[in-house]
Structure formats: C-alpha cells, structure tokens
Design brief:
Elements: E1 2-8, E2 11-16, E3 26-36, H1 38-44, E4 54-55, E5 59-67, E6 79-82, H2 92-95, H3 103-106, E7 126-130, E8 134-136, H4 153-160, E9 171-175, H5 179-191, E10 195-200, H6 203-211, E11 216-219, H7 224-231, E12 237-242, H8 247-256, E13 257-265, E14 289-292, H9 298-309, E15 317-321, H10 325-333, E16 340-344
Parallel strand pairs: 9-10, 9-12, 10-11, 12-13, 13-14, 15-16
Antiparallel strand pairs: 1-2, 1-4, 3-5, 3-7, 3-16, 5-6, 6-8
The protein binds nicotinamide-adenine-dinucleotide and zinc ion (ZN) (2 copies).
Length: about 350
C-alpha cells in the first residue's frame, strides 16, 4: 500500500509498504481521510527522528476492513474514527476519565501512545488499530470527519476544562483560527453563550472565524492587546485559548487575560512566559488559572463527535490526494490551508 512516512529529520517520502495484519484484538481500517496537523510539521522538523519509516497521521477515519481474532465490538464495513489516546484504561487517572494523562503508560511527562507519533498512523491506505480505540462515525462524511480525532478532540477538552468561567456575559478569546482554532471557536459557539473574539495574523482566517460565529475579529499585531482590552472595558477576557503558542501569542494571552480568567495553552509553537510570585514582575493578574492542555479524553471525543453528528460543528477541509501529501505539508507550513488539510488515499 502507499504510505506517507517520515524517514529522518525533514525527510518525508511516499512509498510502498506491506499492508499491516491485524493481530488479536486489532482491526484493519481502510483509510478514508487522514488529517494533517501542525504537530506533524513540528515532528517533520525535529533535529533527530527516532522512528525512521514511521507512517504519519494521527487524525484518521475510515471503514473497518478486516478483524483480528476476538474482536466483537466492531464489524467489517463499519465507519469509524481512530481515537488518538491509546491509554491503558485501568490506571487511576484512566479510571477517573483522564486517560489523556494515563499514568501507567505516559508517566509524568510523556504522552499515551498516539498513532502517527509512535505506532504507524493513517496517512496510508490502511491502518492497524486496537479495536477498543475505534469510535463509530454514524452519519458523518468519513473523509471530512477525520480531523475530529484531534482538531475536534483537543479544543473540546480545552473548552470543557474551562466551562466554569464560560458563563453568560463572559468573553472568550480564540487565538489562531487554524485547524484546531476553527473547531474551538465552533465548540464555544455551540455549547456556551460567551462572546467570542477571534485573533489571527491572516485576514482569510479571520473571515473564516466570522463565518463560524466569531463576534469580533482582531488582527494579531502590536495593537491586538489594546484592541481586546478596549473590547472588554479594560478588564480583559474571561477565557483565552491559545491555539498557536508562539511567543507573540503567549505574550498576548498573558496581556489580555482577566482576573480569575482561564488561560488555556494548546498550541506548541515554542513561546513561553515565566511566573513570578510578586505583583511587580508577574505577567498575570490575580486568580488566573493556567492549563497546559493535552489532547482530550474519551468523553471529549464522544462529545465532539455528537456535536458534529447533530450538525452543530463542521470541519472545514481542504482535501488532497495522498499522492500529493507532501504538497499539503508545504501548504500548511506556508499558511495556505483553510480549516484542516485532509489526505485522501
Ligand atoms: P494551524 O497551522 O492549522 O493553525 C495555526 C493558526 O495560528 C493559523 O491560522 C495561523 O495563521 C495562526 N497564527 C500563527 N501565528 C499567529 C500569531 N502570531 N497570532 C495569531 N495567530 C497566529 O495549526 P493547528 O494544526 O491548528 O495546530 C495549532 C497548534 O496546536 C500547533 O502548535 C500544534 O502543534 C498544536 N497542537 C497541540 C495539541 C495539544 O494537545 N496541546 C494538539 C494538536 C495540536
Ligand atoms: Zn495533532
Ligand atoms: Zn492509564
């Protein structure tokens, strides 16, 4: 089968590999769509890559093709989404529903295994998956649904963890209206009554934000913090979701968060801030609640699937043939993708 693989630092190749064979408890899924995340770009540019030949793609949807021994939870032909958090399911955090921070497999600073960032991913004709990590797609278009596995899941988790501050009359800022951000914005619109301010460097992304229900849009430049403070009577925003995570957006997030606000860092663009315990040198007002948000839980996955199945959120996709996959990486890197790029084998 054809597969898009990372052979070494910066070295993407599309070539032939054997179709994997599902073992006991596994299913082989014929891929319909494989979403392309900016995390794939981060991985592409790592100075060292420990898994040469790994198939990329951690947002995968498709249909069950064949079953390994003992699988009874899915059937051949079922349309499915591949849940990306391959946690143990039985440690204390997993049993508490916090499988995205599984203690047994990920420990204090790791990640539970994620297809396409460890086990082979979905940028191929087939993917082999432990059957317990498949979610039914229901009525969704199997190609356009693929990004729900991360661009849907991760903002759903960030929003769910901020709900206590997302009350009527509150203001939320969404920074970065890309794959994750355009979904985060829609999840806020669909599940809260907050006013939404969207921020991006790209005017086209701000148009997309307007289409999906942003109340205000602000171009990301040196005046952005002033503009957001003006829109919030100088008090700041009750919630800030940073889906970019570069230095400029981390600075902006700290400059506009309100007292007792929820600050959610999702983007991994390399920005940072340092905490100080005294009032003079800390960038944060009193009471701010900061979370470094990772992925989402199985419950978050089901919730965002349901929002999509009931038409309350829609993934905007830009589709590429798998054979054009490397061009999709280059387009994402150049900021040319609207919504989410999805590779179609
Ligand atoms: P994307 O490229 O689709 O979107 C990023 C958006 O940020 C783009 O619209 C871009 O124009 C905008 N942007 C860039 N610089 C900006 C600035 N200075 N101000 C405002 N907007 C700016 O990327 P994506 O796939 O949505 O991923 C976003 C980030 O989230 C990446 O760093 C990715 O690695 C990370 N990520 C984190 C998790 C997690 O679990 N924490 C999960 C998935 C992705
Ligand atoms: Zn991702
Ligand atoms: Zn666990």
């Amino acid at each position: 089968m054809r597969a898009l693989r990372l052979m070494g630092p910066g070295q993407l190749e599309i070539n032939d590999v054997p179709v994997p064979e599902p073992g006991p408890g596994e299913a082989l899924v014929k891929v319909a769509g494989a979403g392309l995340c900016q995390s794939d770009l981060h991985v592409r540019h790592l100075p060292a890559w420990p898994l040469p030949g790994m198939i990329l793609g951690h947002e995968t949807s498709g249909r069950v093709a064949t079953l390994g021994a003992g699988v009874t939870t899915v059937h051949e032909g079922d349309p499915v989404l591949v849940y990306l958090v391959w946690a143990c399911g039985s440690c204390r955090p997993c049993l508490e529903g916090r499988d995205n921070v599984c203690q047994a497999i990920a420990g204090r600073v790791g990640l539970p295994p994620c297809p396409g960032l460890g086990p082979d991913g979905g940028m191929a004709e087939y993917i082999k998956v432990p059957a317990r990590f498949l979610e039914p797609l229901g009525n969704l278009d199997p190609i356009a649904a693929a990004p729900l596995a991360d661009a849907g899941l991760t903002p759903m988790h960030a929003v769910n963890g901020a709900r206590y501050r997302l009350t009527e009359g509150a203001t939320a800022v969404v920074i970065g209206v890309g794959g994750l951000g355009h979904m985060g914005l829609q999840i806020l619109r669909a599940t809260t009554g907050v006013r939404i301010i969207a921020v991006d460097t790209d005017r086209g992304k701000l148009d997309l934000a307007r289409e999906h229900g942003a109340d205000e849009v602000v171009i990301s430049d040196e005046q952005a913090s002033r503009a957001i403070l003006d829109l919030t009577s100088g008090y700041g925003a009750d919630a800030v979701f940073d889906f970019s995570g570069v230095q400029a957006t981390v600075d902006l997030a700290c400059q506009v968060i309100a007292p007792d606000g929820v600050l959610r860092f999702v983007g991994l663009g390399g920005g940072g801030f340092s905490y100080a315990a005294d009032s003079e040198s800390t960038p944060l007002p009193w009471g701010v609640d900061v979370r470094r948000s990772y992925g989402g839980t199985r419950t978050d996955q089901r919730q965002v699937l349901e929002l999509a199945q009931t038409g309350r959120v829609t993934v905007e996709t830009t589709q590429y043939a798998l054979a054009d996959g490397i061009r999709a990486f280059d387009d994402l890197e150049a900021g040319k993708v609207r919504g989410r790029a999805v590779l179609v084998p």
